[in-house]
Specification:
With 561 residues, the chain is mainly alpha-helical. It has a domain at 102-136 and 277-529. Helix content is 40%, strand content 6%. The protein contains 19 helices and nine strands. It has helices at residues 2-18, 43-50, 87-95, 104-108, 124-130, 143-164, 171-195, 228-245, 260-274, 277-288, 299-306, 314-317, 335-338, 348-357, 419-432, 436-451, 480-496, 503-509, 539-543; strands at residues 115-116, 325-332, 344-345, 377-379, 388-390, 396-397, 410-418, 551-552, 559-560. Strands 2-7-6 form a three-stranded antiparallel beta sheet. It has a two-stranded antiparallel ribbon with strand order 1-3. Strands 4-5 form a two-stranded antiparallel sheet. The longest helix has 25 residues, at 171-195. The protein is globular. The protein starts with a helix and ends with a strand. 48% of the residues are buried.
């Protein structure tokens, strides 16, 4: 029942996100917006027939939902003739700005978490991501779908911020400002960490992504990418404002919004990527408090509940009542049905390497952890022979017929921020501060709480092979003790967020290579510094003048545009 309650809350949020003020109130000057929705609006009637309990939620109009042109092609704002005359309508406008797209389906397949399944089902997107090819089609779970959803959300947030200027600065209005600033910061943060180089210092000239701070009034605008450092500075401005102003007391379902702890969790990730360790610790401490263990996701507890029913793990994993879950998001995705059957996904060999053979040290008894059973893997259905997956994702459909080959209107809950990530962030930050005792204390707490593993001698965790220096090469230096702890933390993060896409960001920021066992002519190993670690800017944006990311010229080791 707890899980069903979470699903209901998520669908309530979804209704607010997609069903904005009724169509009768919509009078577009133009149909064009910043991005194309790629979504058919005809599903609305079907949803209403099957979900009468949600009818009362239909107060927010179809902003950014109707078909339109791609980013940089046309006016991102359009002057809608909509009378937004109440704070609550602005709140709904902000709620509607949370992206309905997920990054996990296209990022996870790019990582070293996946292999090639025997008799797995072939999907073009899945193959393209596995071989790090550019893919510019609009469909659920694609890079373009996520890019569009983020910029659509940014445009909607900017509209809300413009409207808020006309209101007195009451506590409620300040809270709305806070949520809007946080969401704008987060969406740009995700965009820059997918379509640009990882952050590597304030004085670098790496190309960023356009940072939009106001609704545009003109159809054709000359957007510039700026630099990654400039984008990070703007994210930081919005993040600080948002954290100061956000107020959980105005949320009916705080975990489906940027609540206070989710905002601090986001800050801990932001400053981790930026290398500002004291701020990572500061924001993490707020989330974790003085009694951290009860806040963590206990896989040993899950194991007792789901050992003989692993396919239903998502009932506990996604619930808002799970203390580890800080922020949830309902997205439109096929990941629930694709993950068990697709060709390029978790295999027995890959799972065995990461969860069983990958240990904490080169010494017994921690040389191997044997955590595959703990993480409750489920076997893929026949005829796939070597497929495994963790049943982290749910699926809800509000239409009668979702049996078509590639259906839409499938709604999946994503976990965006957790206490587990925050503790791992702090663990890494303590190591980088050379505060090894506190880093080890966090690590032993993590291992005991989540896996019931006791470390007999913590000092053994401070040594590692010097060969790892050639693997982990962030923009800042590492001592051997820092390297040892960073390696363990990164590998724990790989296990904890398996299938969720976060591994890709560690591959980027530590410049980790990815090698696959493949004889496919499409395959070329992903090098430490490889332009394919930056997804290509969408073609429509490039056509409108946005600079493309570099690419490797086949047959040449040199980069080319």
């Amino acid at each position: 029942m707890k899980y069903l309650s979470s699903i209901y809350e998520g669908l309530k949020i979804f209704s607010l996100k997609t069903l904005s003020f009724s169509r009768k109130k919509l009078q577009f000057h133009r149909e064009e917006t910043l991005v194309s929705s790629g979504r058919n609006s005809s599903f609305i009637g079907k949803k209403l027939e099957q979900t009468p309990r949600l009818n009362f939620l239909l107060s927010l109009s179809l902003f950014f939902l109707l078909p339109s042109c791609n980013f940089l092609d046309v006016n991102p704002d359009s002057n809608y003739d909509i009378n937004i005359d109440k704070e609550e309508k602005i709140a709904e406008l902000i709620t509607g700005a949370y992206p309905m797209a997920s990054y996990a389906p296209f990022l996870e397949a790019r990582t070293d978490n996946v292999g090639e399944r025997m008799h797995g089902e072939h999907f073009r997107l899945n193959e393209a991501m596995y071989f790090w090819e550019d893919y510019d089609q609009e469909d659920l779970d694609t890079p373009l779908h996520y890019w569009n959803a983020c910029y659509r959300g940014i445009a909607q947030v900017n509209k809300a911020l413009e409207l808020l200027k006309t209101y007195d600065k009451t506590p409620r209005v300040k809270a709305l400002y806070g949520e809007a600033f946080l969401l704008r910061a987060y969406l740009h943060f995700m965009l820059v960490n997918i379509w640009a180089e990882p952050y590597r210092g304030a004085n670098t000239s790496d190309l960023g992504i356009p940072y939009l701070t106001k609704p545009e009034k003109n159809a054709l605008v000359d957007y510039k990418r700026g630099t990654v450092a400039e984008v990070y500075n703007k994210i930081e401005e919005d993040l600080k404002l948002g954290i100061t102003l956000v107020d959980d007391s105005y949320y009916q379902s705080p975990k489906f919004h940027f609540n206070k702890k989710a905002a601090y969790a986001f800050a801990s990730r932001f400053y981790l990527y930026k290398g500002e360790w004291s701020l990572v610790v500061k924001y993490a401490n707020y989330v974790l408090g003085y009694d951290t263990a009860p806040l963590l996701r206990s896989w040993s507890k899950y194991q007792r509940a789901y050992s003989f029913n692993t396919a239903n793990l998502f009932h506990s994993y996604l619930t808002k009542d799970e203390p580890a879950n800080l922020m949830l998001l309902t997205t439109e995705s096929r990941i629930k049905r694709d993950l068990p059957i697709q060709k390029f996904a978790p295999t027995f060999d890959v799972v065995d390497k990461i969860f069983n053979k990958q240990g904490l040290t080169n010494s017994e008894p921690l040389k191997k952890l044997n955590l595959r059973m703990t993480y409750l893997f489920t076997k893929s259905p026949a005829p796939i022979r070597n497929g495994w997956y963790i049943a982290k994702f749910d699926e809800r459909s509000m239409i009668l017929d979702n049996t078509s080959l590639r259906p839409r209107d499938l709604y999946v809950t994503n976990v965006l921020f957790t206490t587990d990530e925050v503790l791992l962030n702090r663990m890494e930050a303590y190591a980088m501060q050379k505060n090894y005792d506190k880093s080890l204390a966090d690590m032993t707490l993590y291992l005991k709480t989540k896996y019931d593993i006791t470390v007999p001698d913590r000092t053994m965790l401070l040594s590692t092979s010097a060969k790892n220096y050639s693997l982990y090469t962030p923009f800042y230096g590492l001592t051997i003790k820092q390297l040892a702890l960073v390696r363990i933390t990164t590998e724990l993060r790989q296990k904890e967020f398996y299938e969720e896409g976060l591994r890709w960001f560690d591959i980027r920021r530590f410049y980790l290579p990815v090698n696959r066992k493949s004889s496919n002519p499409l395959y070329s190993p992903l090098r430490k510094e490889d332009p394919r670690k930056l997804l290509q800017i969408p073609a429509e944006a490039i056509n409108r003048g946005l600079e493309a990311n570099p690419r490797v010229d086949k047959g040449s080791a040199h980069w080319s545009n």
